[in-house]
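BUG: 3D viewer hangs when loading the predicted structure for this chain

Environment: internal workstation, default settings.
Expected: structure renders.
Actual: progress bar stalls at 90%.

Input used:
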Amino acid sequence: MLKGPGRISGAFVAMSFRARESATETRMGISVSRRVGSAVARNYMRRVIRECLRSCSEPRGPLDIVIVVRRAFGRREFRSVCDEVRDMVSAAGGGAVADLA
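Structure tokens produced before the viewer hung:
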């Protein structure tokens, strides 16, 4: 598994991740800038991302993951955003990490 930080970018979100050496669980954070939209829109985006993360399987190994929402997120269809987030989390925890970083 990759030791240093990694980044994966998509159409709706960007994700940074790093392996945690002395931990046993994965930590995840969500960042939504004020430039993305109103408070109501930002909270909606956080709720969508959190729900996507709940439905994801836990990545292999303990990781620190930060998801940054992009302006293109808007009011996109839930399924398309979830698919992108799920693919990113599985890539971060799977064997494809070295290829993406």
